[in-house]
Here is the input.
Amino acid sequence: MTQIVIMNTAKNLLNKKGQSMIEYVLILAFIALAVIASLTPLGNILANKFTEFAANISGS
Here is the structure.
């Protein structure tokens, strides 16, 4: 069973359709990493603003 999977994977790597699919997956992975890297600081800023807002409402 694993030999069939390995052979199919090898065929897909040699196939242009498989190659372009891998390229699309890599591009999507890099885009996802860029989005995560850019949104993490924004999330921290928003969390601080909500904390400030909650503190102002409670009167602390």
